[in-house]
Amino acid sequence: QVQLVESGGGLVQPGGSLSLSCVASGFAFSTYAMSWFRQGPGKGLEWVSGINSGGTVTTYHDSVKGRFTISRDHIKKTLYLQMNSLKPEDTAVYFCAQSSQGIATMETEDYRYWGQGTQVTVSS
User: Fold this and answer.
1) What CA–CA distance (Å, rounded) separates 62 from 64?
2) Where are the beta strands (DSSP E) in 16-75?
3) Model confidence pLDDT, tens digit, residues 4-50
């Protein structure tokens, strides 16, 4: 069955960096667009970044542009999110998700499979 397993979260000071990973199994990873979402304390799910199946097209929420980088490794079947210059407002549970639409949209209803999430806390 399809599984998405995130890791790499933790506690970091403002201005610091973290690298999240999402290991995929149970489907042809290289043929699906993928995205990262996040859910902050008391907030709804927010799309963060997306990448097409080939890894050649990436998109970002305005709030993370220039700070976050999404990438993927088809051999390792892994999706990544490199997060730099972290801010307290980046504190959230981060989820990876598989798009069912052929492209990485910003809409949660376009994603069929989700990971369990990894907690990122930015605090001094």
Assistant:
1) 6
2) 18-25, 34-39, 45-51, 58-60, 68-73
3) 999 999 999 999 999 999 999 999 999 999 999 999 999 999 999 99
Only one residue has tokens 């069955």, namely 1
β partners of residue 72: 79
Q: By the 8 A CB rule, do 98 and 4 touch?
A: yes
Tens-place pLDDT, residues 102-116: 899 999 999 999 999
Q: Are strands 18-25 and 78-83 parallel, antiparallel or unpaired?
A: antiparallel
Phi, psi of 108 (to 5 degrees): -60, -30
Ramachandran angles phi, psi of 109, nearest 5°: -70, -10
